[in-house]
Amino acid sequence: MRFWAGLGRWAGVALVVLAASGVQAQDASPWTRGDKTRTRLISAGGLEGDHYRVGVEIVLNAQALTYWRTPGEAGVPPLLKFDSSKNFGSAEIKYPAPGRFLEGGAVAFGYRERVIFPIDVKPLDPGKPMTLDIDFHFAVCENICIPAEARLKLDLRPDAKRTAEAAQIDAFAAKVPKPLEGAVTTRFNMWGVRDAKKPTWRVRFPAAAANSEVFAEGPEGWYFDTRPAGDALYDIILAEKPSGAVLPIDGVVLTITNGQEAYETTTRLEAPPARP
């Protein structure tokens, strides 16, 4: 896997296993502490329709960062396992739009200071309490990259009142990219670059959205790098693809950020024009 292989670029890699948080029928689990991080599980309260709203919160020290679902040139995406939960049906994990950082000579996509991953959790039986037990794997990087694991556990009750943490979950849920099709402030044109060394597609934004950034995610086995290419321009570069696979490729997810706004759309990348 490209992301785990990318950890080889970092020196002094170590594994930190955080202490189990324990169960409590409250608004949040206790903090679990690791090297440069604090992590906990928070709840917005009782059932909202057919699901609970919770969040995995990470607070990072100094210039440390943790990764988005697609980490960039190196790193580890967050991984959440719910196998030990009770009365658990399903979970929808949401990822706030990332930042772009230069870390150890590589471009990383992720978060500094603090992030909450909002999660919508459906119980098997909505009338009964639920124990959410998450085995959370992530990485913390500041010059060196440290894989970490946190066990986060919390009781959820269908009749619980809205909590003080609900507003925090709401704030990070607002940073999750929205469908681009409903946006009017971010439009772009995209075309294949003829003379690129690797298959490359250039994205041009209007002047009003010149500070936009682009993050590209392909289907399994397809990986793309993105980088600025000039004023209001971004390049999407094919970095890896499955053996024998050929362009065009469907299902490429583009995440576009513009200040406080973030949008997401799915596109098809055609083979760029051949060199003359």
3D structure, described in words:
- The protein is mainly beta and 276 residues long.
- The chain folds into two domains: 2-175, Immunoglobulin-like (Sandwich), CATH 2.60.40; 179-269, Immunoglobulin-like.
- The protein is 5% helix and 50% strand.
- The chain has two helices and 20 strands.
- It has helices at 2-6, 166-173, and strands at 16-17, 32-34, 37-43, 52-60, 65-72, 79-81, 88-93, 99-103, 106-112, 114-123, 130-142, 144-156, 178-179, 189-192, 200-204, 213-217, 223-230, 233-240, 249-258, 261-269.
- The strands form five sheets. It has a five-stranded antiparallel β-sheet. The chain has a four-stranded mixed β-sheet with strand order 1-12-11-6, with no helix packed on it.
- Strand 2 (32-34) and strand 3 form a beta hairpin.
- Mean pLDDT is 88; it is low at 3-25.
